[in-house]
Design a protein that fits this description.
Radius of gyration of chain B: 24 Å
Shape of chain A: globular
Number of strands of chain A: 2
Distance between the termini of chain A: 9 Å
Order of helices and strands of chain B: HHHHHH
Structural class of chain B: mainly alpha
Number of helices of chain B: 6
Distance between the termini of chain B: 58 Å
Strand order of the largest sheet of chain A: 1-2
CATH superfamily of chain A: lambda repressor-like DNA-binding domains
Number of helices of chain A: 5
Strand content of chain B: under 5%
Shape of chain B: flat
Order of helices and strands of chain A: EHHHHHE
Number of domains of chain B: 2
Oligomer: heterodimer
Helix content of chain B: over 70%
Number of domains of chain A: 1
Radius of gyration of chain A: 11 Å
Structural class of chain A: mainly alpha
Helix content of chain A: 55-70%
Strand content of chain A: 5-15%
């Protein structure tokens, strides 16, 4: 599943540590989500989407493979 | 109670407390067991201090040691413990099977481990699975009345 976390974060010129602090998760978890190694829970997915002002389906695309 | 203790201190204190109780049990045996008890207590304190230091690191392991793990780190911990539990069950099964086959007198501790593991798993099922079950909504008369097939 592809997501736009890295893209949105870099657009806002945020570091992974800053995003992690804003979302209340660890920096390692942000790295794992960005690389597609970890699929966040639904509540966390909503938190991420709301943080970037997007809907969950805009933030996470189930039809695309991570890294494509 | 746990809320009163700083997250970083929780695991180290737990290790120190459990280890001290176990070391005290050895000391209570009497005889030369007190020497082992002292060595055990030193090891436990070193382990508790090491855990405290690890808890300050910016790693998955550090987050778990510092009781500040997020959902992914808790899942990692859960998976690791589940794997350990599976290993314990398989080892206990092999132990009890070999013990029975060779008519050994040491077969029953393996059976106890196997039984406790099995009981724990049943307890887990009853706590986390069965409690969430409910009747299927298509079993209700209201749903049948709304069905386009009827």
């Amino acid at each position: 599943m592809r997501n736009r976390v890295r893209e949105q974060r870099t657009q806002r010129e945020m570091s992974q540590a800053e995003l992690a602090a804003a979302l209340g998760v660890s920096r390692q978890t942000v790295i794992s989500i960005e690389s597609g190694r970890y699929l966040p829970s639904l509540p966390l997915a909503f938190t991420i989407a709301r943080f970037f002002g997007l809907t969950v389906d805009k933030m996470f695309d189930p039809d695309e493979e991570a890294g494509t | 109670m746990m809320a009163l203790i700083r997250p970083r201190l929780r695991k180290p204190l737990g290790i120190a407390l459990a280890g001290t109780v176990f070391a005290a049990a050895w000391a209570l045996r009497g005889g030369h067991a007190w020497q082992l008890s002292v060595a055990m207590e030193v090891t436990v304190l070193v382990s508790a201090i090491t855990t405290y230091v690890r808890a300050g690191e910016d790693t998955d392991d550090g987050a778990l040691a510092g009781s500040r793990a997020d959902e992914r780190q808790k899942l990692l911990s859960l998976r690791a413990r589940a794997l350990g539990w599976n290993f314990a069950m398989v080892a206990a099964f092999i132990g009890v099977t070999i013990g029975v086959a060779v008519k050994a007198i040491w077969w029953w501790p393996f059976l106890v481990i196997f039984a406790v593991a099995g009981f724990g798993q049943l307890l887990g099922w009853s706590t986390y699975s069965t409690a969430d079950e409910g009747p299927a909504d298509d079993a209700s008369p209201q749903h049948e009345a709304r069905s386009p097939a009827s």
